[in-house]
Design goal:
CATH superfamily of the largest domain: P-loop containing nucleotide triphosphate hydrolases
Bound molecules: adenosine-5'-diphosphate, magnesium ion
Strand order of the largest sheet: 6-7-8-3-9-10
Structural class: alpha/beta
Order of helices and strands: HHHHHHHHHHEEEHEEHEHHHEHEHEEHH
Number of strands: 10
Helix content: 40-55%
Radius of gyration: 30 Å
Low-confidence stretches: none
Strand content: 5-15%
CATH architecture of the largest domain: 3-Layer(aba) Sandwich
Length: 501
């Protein structure tokens, strides 16, 4: 048995084969791209709290993953026998092949996307929401870019699977690489030579696309990025608080009878708290006393069971068990833009530079022109001492610097009130001072602030009022001096454990 090398080499410049390569590339790329789009919709539906959407997506994924592609191909291609009206589309083997491939691949890719979506930290969604960005905006600006980045290696792998699956389309007589080969060797019986050429073409396509996809992956990898150069625009003062907002009465925030359960555990047991405009209130207390829960209910990141919250004199949030239920998403999103939030874990957007983090929300809300937003963003960054870092990505900063960016990002929305949940607890001790200094400066400028903190010295120096919480209740509250002089036995014990100079 001879192997005809000359014949095999000649097949590498065979016009029919190269045409078939074109078909395979087109079919696989279209399948991949359409699969990514439909798969994403399926993955979102799968995660939705809407039962019908969720179940529908689960059913789709279950069915199309169970069905062998070959069966699906033959079924789709022959559908016109039952429904003659579909013959316009499906009698074309390319269209029938594409439809069958997309139906099947969307189910697989949906699960890949779901993995990507689950990898985006919950704090990212909360940071977006706290900046007043709604669901679709959060998905578009924050979640999708990050989820795609996570999913890309697996999506690239799926592309290679698709290239090879296209060989199945030969059963519905689409002239792809395998079919061209089969047609040749049934005439000349040179099976091995022909299949060597077939193998060559598949390996070629996979090699070229693996390279391209790896380049794309590197391009999207923020950890490889260099800081962006930032050109200074005209100097502009940092944006102040929004004076145009209605300021009815004396109170920025008022909480009435806030109650909340987690299962059996009553975490907030009827909290009343008033925050005056310009006042700085620190919330202290042992771990697990409900401080984080309380501050998160102040901007509605956590829903209340009972009670209500007023913002600048207007109804803002209401417990779901109150008469009429909660006030709804519209009132919530209209108010939340006036409340800035700084999280213990920073929650900066890792795929955006420092400056982009700061101006993302005001740009989304259309507060000003891009030039003005950049200028005021840079002014805010100067204010927190990070002007030179504007072009860096969050992972290129220390924790203390990241937290100062997070403060600038919240300030960029020109909020009426700033909420801080243990802003320095995640920091190394030597980085705490810089962050506290920024908060102190804000206090001096008259910013209204509610600060949950374990930094007792700071709390008693900076605050107008200190609130001591334990087991979901406010045990004692008052001006720092007054509170220290009249501390209850319980609070005395708590303060003895902490360093209070
Ligand atoms: P603190 O901030 O004062 O340490 P938290 O508000 O975080 O307290 O928590 C108060 C209590 O509520 C704790 O016992 C905690 O375990 C519980 N808790 C907090 N968040 C949740 C949650 N999402 N689900 C269930 N229990 C929670
Ligand atoms: Mg906490």
């Amino acid at each position: 048995m001879q192997f005809d090398w000359d014949y095999a080499a000649g097949l590498l410049v065979n016009g029919d084969f190269w045409k078939a390569v074109g078909t395979v590339v087109e079919l696989s790329v279209e399948t991949w791209l359409l699969g990514i789009v439909f798969g994403f919709v399926l993955a979102l539906a799968r995660q939705s709290s809407n039962r019908a959407l969720n179940r529908g997506a689960a059913l789709y994924i279950w069915f199309f993953r169970s069905l062998p592609l070959l069966v699906l191909l033959i079924f789709v291609y022959n559908l016109p026998q039952v429904f003659p009206s579909t013959s316009v589309l499906l009698s074309n083997p390319y269209a029938a092949g594409l439809i069958a491939l997309v139906l099947s691949e969307s189910a697989y890719i949906a699960e890949i996307h779901r993995g990507g979506l689950l990898a985006v930290a919950k704090g990212q969604l909360e940071a977006g929401k706290a900046l007043g960005i709604r669901y679709t905006g959060v998905q578009r600006l924050i979640v999708i870019p990050q989820a795609l980045r996570v999913a890309l290696p697996t999506l690239a792998n799926e592309y290679i699977t698709i290239v090879k699956l296209t060989s199945l389309v030969s059963v519905i007589s689409l002239s792809e690489i395998l079919l061209v080969g089969q047609q040749l060797y049934t005439q000349n019986f040179l099976v091995m030579e022909t299949m060597l050429a077939v193998a060559f073409y598949y390996v070629l396509i996979v090699t070229v696309f693996s390279y391209l996809l790896r380049r794309l992956e590197q391009h999207l990898d923020v950890t490889r990025r260099q800081p962006k150069a930032i050109v200074d625009g005209p100097a502009q003062p940092a944006p102040a608080r929004r004076e145009a907002a209605p300021r009815q009465g004396d109170f920025a925030l008022r909480v009435f009878g806030a109650r909340k359960h987690y299962g059996q555990l009553e975490v907030l047991k009827g909290i009343d708290l008033d925050i005056r405009f310009g006042e700085v209130v620190s919330i202290i207390g042992p771990s697990g006393s409900g401080k984080t829960t309380l501050i998160r209910t102040l901007n509605g990141l956590e829903g209340l069971d009972r009670g209500q919250v007023e913002l600048c004199g207007a109804p803002f949030l209401r417990g779901r068990e109150e008469d009429g239920g909660s006030l709804g998403n519209r009132v919530h999103m209209e108010g939340i833009v006036q409340v800035g939030m700084v999280f213990q874990g920073f929650n900066l957007f890792p795929h955006k530079t420092v400056l982009e983090n700061v101006i993302l929300a005001p740009r989304h809300h259309g507060h000003a022109s891009d030039t003005d937003l950049r200028a005021s963003g840079l002014a805010l960054l100067s204010k927190v001492g990070l002007r030179e870092h504007a072009g860096k990505y969050p992972h290129q900063l220390s924790g203390g610097q990241q937290q100062r960016v997070a403060i600038a990002r919240a300030l960029a929305m020109r909020p009426q009130v700033m909420l801080f949940d243990e802003p320095t607890s995640a920091l190394d001790p030597e980085l705490v001072g810089d962050v506290l200094k920024v908060i102190e400066d804000l206090a001096r400028e008259g910013m209204t602030m509610v600060i949950v903190t374990h930094e007792m010295k700071f709390a008693f120096q900076v605050s107008d009022r200190v609130v001591f919480m334990e087991r979901g209740e406010i045990i004692q509250a008052g001006a720092p001096r007054e509170l220290l002089d009249n501390r209850s036995e319980r609070m005395g014990r708590f303060l003895k454990d902490v360093q209070l100079a």
